Amino acid sequence: DVLKTLVVVAGAVAVIFVNGYRAQDWIIWEVFELAREVQSLLSFPFILFANATLLRLLTGTIATGYDVSGILCQQLTPAQLQMLDKMAGKNAKANGANRAEGSAS
Hints:
mainly alpha; two-stranded antiparallel ribbon; 2 strands
């Protein structure tokens, strides 16, 4: 990326010197703006990494995170999250029933 930027800047400076533009000429700023646009267009392939599906295909990696115990693990899918919510609801009901039995005795 740095090499690409240096090449674009060198090209812009070469255009300015070859054509004999002076510091007062407005065209210098146009050349630098064009150089900035060219550099942005050359950076375009990096936009592919912004898409999660394409990122997985290009790099073969999976999303990870830390669980409540601080252990690194794979990120849960939406289906796994729903299953966890259901299990938490069942556990809450079971704990509520156990508390009711404990207070009754």
